Amino acid sequence: MKMIIAYIRQEQLPAVKESLSGAEMFHFTVMPVLGTAPRAEQRTFRGVEQKVTLFKRMRLELVVKDSDVENAIEAISRGAMNSGGGGRIFINDVIDAVKIWTGERGDRAI
User: Fold this and answer.
1) What is the pLDDT of residue 91?
2) Model pLDDT for residues 36-95, shown as the tens digit of each residue
3) For position 42, what pLDDT does the model report?
4) pLDDT above 80 for 13
5) Which residues is 51 bridged to in the sheet?
6) Could you give the C-alpha distances from 64 to 1, 6, 11, 67, 90, in angstroms and in order?
């Protein structure tokens, strides 16, 4: 099993969700986060110029079977590219998973 973590812009989320649904991946977690970028931007807030170094992003997490990793990566990439591109995807090993309600473990728990 693998945990896939993707960081995308907020406006990319609808397209990424649709792409994951098309790949029959319906279970994932989304949370808002702040992230840095290579360059800061100057923005005006209440008439004062400010240097912005943290930007709003969305963090998407899903755990998939090893056989579904490439499909998940392709679905996330396709959705992100169709809505402006950009973002990062990270893949981590998952040692085990437990479904609390039934006690199922491993691939059966996801």
Assistant:
1) 98
2) 877 777 788 788 888 888 889 999 999 999 999 999 999 999 999 988 878 999 999 999
3) 79
4) yes
5) 42
6) 6, 13, 24, 8, 13
- Rounded Cα distance, 104 and 110, in Å: 9
Q: Angle, nearest 10°, between helix axes 13-22 and 69-82?
A: 140
Residue 28's pLDDT is what? Answer: 95
**Domains located in the chain, CATH noted:** 2-38+49-109 (3.30.70.120)
**CA atoms lying within 13 Å on the CB side of residue 16:** 30
From the list 27, 57, 52, 29, the residue with the least C-alpha distance to 40 is 52
* Spatial CB neighbours of 14, under 8 Å, sequence gap ≥ 6: 83
